[in-house]
Design a protein that fits this description.
Blueprint: E1 5-10, H1 15-30, E2 34-40, H2 51-56, E3 61-63, E4 70-76, H3 85-89, E5 97-102, E6 107-112, E7 117-123, H4 124-136, E8 144-146
Antiparallel strand pairs: 1-7, 1-8, 2-4, 2-5, 3-4, 5-6, 6-7
Amino acid sequence: MSATRTELTVADGAGPAGVDAVCRAVLATVWTRLTWFELDLQGLTERAETASAAATLEPYRRLTWPRRRPTSTVHLVPGRDDAALDAVLGLLTRTMGSAALAGDGEVVYDVKDEGTSCWFELTDDERAAVEQRLRDAGASTDLLVPFDG
């Protein structure tokens, strides 16, 4: 029997710190059940506040075919690439896009345009864990709300 999943987002008016707190809490919570994570590094290596984290992810950049040139996108495999998680968490609301797939092939995390568009699909247990992470970070659990798309 599969767990019930709920579509969630960040509350309107959350502000940059609130959006960042939710995105970090969600990704940290679902990381172990993911099979794939992708993040766009475009422009992040040039910004002083993101250059270090973006440089950490350089080895994970995808290559184009047939010339095998790096693209702006990094592809991570949770479990194998866990060392990169801290760098990823620092870039979630600064990138043009990041997305994640769970083991069943379903998208469970999708954040676009520096966090202005956020969508998550969480089980009840994951939602409770995200809310606990928010409390631990000093953020309100009211920042995580049902998605009404």
